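Record type: monomer structure entry
Structure origin: computed from sequence
Chain ID: A
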Amino acid sequence: MLKHDTKESREGKVVLKEVDSQCVKSCIDFIYSGKFVIPDEKMNDLHVAIMMQLEDVKHAVSDFLEESINEENYFSTRNVADMYGLDAVSTRCRAFFHDNIMEISNQPEFGNIEKPNILKFVMSEKSKLCEEEKLNLLFNWVEKNCRNQEHLHECLEAIKFDEVSPAFLERLLESNHIISNDLGLYKLITGRLLKASKASQKTNEEIGKDDLIILFDDNADCIRSFNPVTEKVEKFHDEKFTNLKHFSAISVDSYIYILCGNKSVHRLNFQSKNSKWERMKDMICVHGLTPRSVSMSGSIVVVGGSYSKATSDVEIFTSLVNQWIQLEGKPTAIRDAGLISLNDSIYCIGGRRQDGIIVPSFCRFTPSSSEWVDLDPMRYPVRASGVVAVDQKIFVIGGRDGRMKLNNVECYDVTSAQWTSLSSMNACHGWVSAYHIDKWIFAVTDGGTANAIENYDISQDKWTIVKPKEDQCCRIYKSVL
């Protein structure tokens, strides 16, 4: 450029346009010293090194981009990789997109993804997402770019709606403004909801066919299932959770979630026999060895502490963004409280205080208003009880009073705000999980107890001991519906 009759040769200088001075300085320093130092925020200005034909700098920047990719810089990193032909970075971007698409979907640039690419991902059999998460992904895509709405109907045809629960579709109709503003879309989702609701209605012979209580067996090399109709215990999934000894379990949509004492969270898609445990974002707070949790509108809420730790911390997990958010804490620290979600509120029953005293307390927490309200307490102190809601009634089953296991059963009518004593269980059960299946309530004792299941007939107020049909003893550590 300086040898020939050019403007640069006549003026004796070269003007570098649209480059950052710090990047140019770093490149010149590298020419003289062999050392390349550049601030992280300047890494995307790779064209300076390309222009100066500094291949070593190009490789150094490429390595950095490949190692430092995250959901916030994904789109800028992918653009640089495509612009400068960085094959290794492009490969890493594709893998990162596949594994972290829900987090990436929160970025503004997500709306710029072209329809063939988003449709290809939704239709992919290799995707780890369930159909409900794919639906959330599509609506997030439209939310980020309104022009994508013209493709939404076509993309929804790729969704397997028979794998989407009626409850999830109801939440979409209630809260999604994209659906409410599109009559055709509203009719489509309403039609799918009606079809799903009809499919979910069971005859007396079918009751329990799809309702299984999943058992984490102390002795088994797999996860087992208990069928409430046939009372058979069978192998359910090849994947056994072996990461840690202490954990609690909860089911939300198509997943079983494991909440561990070390704050880690794992989940398994129970609709797929080939699924593996995947690690989710850790909880924010330490909630003891077996965190007490409840599902609410497709989210998981953890309240207080559990064995060995009393706390007032409350936090909520939303699978769509794989994120925990801390909520208004409980006024008093508690551990091993019973929990149930009803009418957009969470009811917290009993528990052990920081000073070790077990209490009969009963309170209601409404996340939308961050309000805690004390209600009439139970008639006796209890912790680690099983809690289940049927219509507008809350059943509190078993648990512990100090070191003693209980067989007491109390019922709170939300409408009349009255407590009533019901028939006691046949045996005393501590660390109870309770599940409502049609006209019955099943109480399952956790903690390594052998075959500890009782069945309550709501209409007859009668408990029956269940003897699972299986050759070997099933020692239940944890269970989930």
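Annotation 1: Residues 202-208 have pLDDT under 50 and may be disordered.
Annotation 2: The radius of gyration is 28 Å.
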